[in-house]
Amino acid sequence: xxxxxxxxxxxxxxxxxxxxxxxxxxxxxxxxxxxxxxxxxxxxxxxxxxxxxxxxxxxxxxxxxxxxxxxxxxxxxxxxxxxxxxxxxxxxxxxxxxxxxxxxxxxxxxxxxxxxxxxxxxxxxxxxxxxxxxxxxxxxxxxxxxxxxxxxxxxxxxxxxxxxxxxxxxxxxxxxxxxxxxxxxxxxxxxxxxxxxxxxxxxxxxxxxxxxxxxxxxxxxxxxxxxxxxxxxxxxxxxxxxxxxxxxxxxxxxxxxxxxxxxxxxxxxxxxxxxxxxxxxxxxxxxxxxxxxxxxxxxxxxxxxxxxxxxxxxxxxxxxxxxxxxxxxxxxxxxxxxxxxxxxxxxxxxxxxxxxxxxxxxxxxxxxx
Length: 369
Prior knowledge:
The protein is of the alpha+beta class.
């Protein structure tokens, strides 16, 4: 007998005792943490974090210059000739609540110092030696603060300073072409800033390695979206106010076309929806790994070997975050078949990198030293 239960519109749901449960691997667990309950509400579209007031903020924390630029660009007026009081205009735009506090959207777009109130909402950027996040040495490291537009520009400057430029047939006086598509970088960094989860107090991470760049944003894909969905342009605006502000102040359309546009300029981009770690990881490959050598038989073989190595690294990383992860969960997070996952797990076990403790059902994975 197969019972099909249609998806409801008032999630999350509780049992008859008012308790809330979520799936965790083959089992379930009770949710008691307030932040996790808010994340579930946000994913159901019953709660919008970017419209919530931020404690101890007021109009005095706003940057008047940034506001004037916004009103001039969107309305063709300055804040002095809007035809209504500034506080009323800010309330109408959901930048200020009835109690005079800034909303999260107002704070992250127009405050003088957003991180004074939300210190975790910034970008942590690191340029490593080598290809391991566990390395102890780095070439450069920077905490990028400011509003969303400011963090976007500073984040792009950091990435451009770490990456090589090639002449690529241009004249000698040109600045050269970035080794990773600048269009792809801009689209993906904007996407991370706009669509991150604001209910998880963690920074966006820009990690530059010798062979790749990783952009990691807090929060897995919402509303049951998959990697394949976003590749097809299926959009879900987790932060509707922020997306609207971005469309008016930045080179951002909000149509769900950013991922498609990035893939048009770099077809080798990898997307990993890491549900167990509640984060979304994008990988862009540098140098030869991002070249067109795949046209030849030799290039295809190299690409296949590199892809296999990358998948192994990701599986080990996921296991380190969740030892109870299942083949089905790995398949969804890596966007590959369960058969391919099983093959990679077998290789990792044979090479002594991981081992299985206990039975297939009820056991767990361990990473070997």
